[in-house]
Amino acid sequence: MSQPTHPTRPLPSLRQRPAVPASVEPSTPGRPQSFTNDDAIAAAYRAGLAGFSVKGVAKQIGVSPAALYQRFGNRQGLLNACMSKAFDTVEPLVGSPDRFETLRQFSDQWWALCLRCPGIEVVIRNYPDPEILLMTKKFGCYRTRLCELGLSTEQATFAGSMIAVNMLELRHRLPHTPVRPEDVPAEVESQREQSISFILQTLETTWPEWSVKEEQA
Fold it and tell me: Where does the record place the HTH tetR-type domain (predicted)?
């Protein structure tokens, strides 16, 4: 004798179905079953680091938002991955240049980073410990070289931060998409050169220190 059916019984949720992987939704036509971190990072770059959404990135690469949350935890986790990837693209210092050539190479690398990563100028402003982030990872070799040439860590940090902040401000003049160097408007490139020349000329006479004092209890 067959068992009675229960048409009103609720169906089990997708999370209770052991056949469905936790990282992706059930198969649908045209939807890939997997994605790489680079897929998600590239989609976030295209959308802009300051304004991308997990839902928008998921739509770009053809997966569910749940798959991204499974991989990165939350939007900040994906943003952290984007920032790590961005700084990993920075080229190290070439040769053993003097102070001013070191800072010029530093400025070129910051500008290239800004062009590749739309929205970074907003993210940096709101990122934890931005004054430390400016000289981390591969940018650290530039500060090391300045210290080898007689500057204190605070002086090197100040000089580098002034240049980086200037490059980030100039990025506001460009579209909120990745920009190739050859597509930068002439007036923006001219202003960049003028800004760097002014900063370097100013540093010929004085090397201020950047030291953030701890708040008194």
Answer: 30-90
Q: Per-residue b/e over 146-185, b at no fewer than 16 CB within 10 Å?
A: beeeebeeebbbbbbbbbbbbbbebbeebebeebeeeebe
Burial of 130 per CB tally in 10 Å (0-12, 13-18, 19+): middle
CB 119 within 8 A of CB 49: yes
Structural element, H or E, at residue 194: helix 186-203
Asked if residues 150 and 203 have their Cβ atoms less than 8 Å apart, the reply is no
For residue 173, CA distances in Å to 50, 69, 123, 201 come to 15, 33, 16, 24
CB 44 within 8 A of CB 61: no
Compute the distance between CA of residue 120 and CA of residue 117 in angstroms, rounded to an integer: 6
Across the chain, mean pLDDT equals 81
Does residue 148 sit in helix, strand or coil? helix
pLDDT in tens, 52-64: 999 999 999 999 9
Instruction: Kindly report whether the global pTM for this prediction surpasses the value 0.85.
Output: no
pLDDT tens digits for 184-205? 999 999 999 999 999 888 887 7
pLDDT at 100: 92
